[in-house]
Amino acid sequence: MIQITNLSKSYGSNKALDDISLELSYGIYALLGPNGAGKSTLMNILTLGLLPDSGEVLWQGQSIEAAGRDYRSILGYMPQQQGLYDGFSGSDFLYYIAGLKGIEKAWLPYEAQRVAELVNLRERLRDKISGYSGGMKQRILLAAAILGDPAVVILDEPTAGLDPKERIRVREIIEDMSGYKIIITATHVVSDIETIADEVILLKNGVIADSGSPEELCSKLDAPDGLESVYMKVFEE
Q1: For residues 178 and 115, what is the distance between their CA atoms, to the nearest angstrom?
Q2: Cβ distance 42 to 7 under 8 Å?
Q3: Which of 26, 90, 210, 223 could serve as a FRET partner for 235 with CA atoms 20 to 30 Å apart?
Q4: What is the pTM assigned to this prediction?
């Protein structure tokens, strides 16, 4: 369980998050909103990359800052920016991330192969990342995020740069994991989350404009054409 209570964060006079409160249990939570809505700020706080100005985030009743290493050990994060080492092979990168996560060395070969298979990169693990396409780099980041079977997985634009076939594969991976994890994914692409999200959180100007299942939001906002219509009503009208 993750409890977010009265969370606020500002950059100078710009309020990126304004008194956000959420309660998250197992399932897929989609953060949906335009650029500047506060999605990345919220995820950076949840991954301990930023500290809030006020409010708190609790994991199993304990502050994530106080939990520190224990919280990080159950966390998988895929950033939007591809901070990769071009001189590494795919395997080198996964081993490096596994070391940071404290995964036992005896399990590393198996675990690297497992996640690489999931993201369709098993045959390219020995290749240098410098030779990867943008989509392959996106997939190796996803593989790194799910190393060690973390209980909380945070994905920032996980399907960016992928072709339609790989987008579907990533959606299937996310959906398959959702029964026993908290998965938080931010996206601009409504179709990537419409069929898999248990709850959609609409962020607008640092506040929660609305939230609910895709079906609930479509009904509430009179959007019979689906989440695309919800997005248009909330963010573009």
Answers
A1: 16
A2: yes
A3: 26
A4: 0.91
